[in-house]
Write a structure and sequence with these properties.
Layout lengths: L2 H9 L4 H9 L2 H5 L2 H8 L3 H6 L1 H21 L11 H11 L5 H8 L4 H13 L7 H30 L1
Helix pairs in contact: 1-9, 6-7, 8-10, 9-10
């Protein structure tokens, strides 16, 4: 099975057919869908906020290598200089200061194929978190946000081919 689909199935409460259906829909429909809303509503925001230092440490440690991989292996042109922006964005999102739409806009320059290849690795950055509950909640949060990014990337690719 595709590593991207596997990542979403393992970390979100969707089956393979549901993931494939979501990935085929327009971004607007997905963002406004009861299914995504329900998935986001199940995130333990209090736990995520409480464990931001843990996530920040994971991101600070692993994102520089992840960014190098994006740039050098996947050919992504615009890669952040440091993990700070990602950590700040996550904090802003959890504090309702950043929107999913803004996240989508920020990631539109990332090529579709690179984005899909990167998602499993990004979610996997949290594999080393010892507390299972914390690890799973962060992986779920990152996977949910990445699902939206992949939906948009696929939609943009379709629009570009028309």
């Amino acid at each position: 099975m595709n590593p991207l689909i596997t990542t979403f199935i393992q970390n979100l409460d969707f089956s393979q057919p549901e993931i494939e259906e979501i990935l085929s829909q327009p971004l607007n429909e997905v963002i406004n869908s009861p299914a995504l809303k329900q998935e986001l509503d199940t995130l333990n925001i209090d736990l995520l906020k409480k464990t931001l230092p843990t996530a920040g440490a994971v991101l600070a440690e692993h994102l520089p290598l992840f960014y190098d991989w994006l740039k050098n292996e996947l050919g992504v042109q615009r890669v952040p200089d440091s993990p700070d922006h990602t950590t700040k964005w996550v904090i802003g999102f959890l504090n309702n200061q950043e929107s999913i739409n803004h996240l989508v806009e920020l990631h539109r320059p990332v090529p579709h194929a690179a984005l899909e290849t990167a998602v499993p690795r990004l979610v996997g950055l949290f594999d080393g978190v010892e507390d299972v509950t914390v690890r799973e909640e962060w992986q779920k949060a990152v996977a949910a946000l990445c699902l939206v990014l992949v939906v948009d990337a696929r939609e943009q690719e379709k629009l570009g081919q028309c």
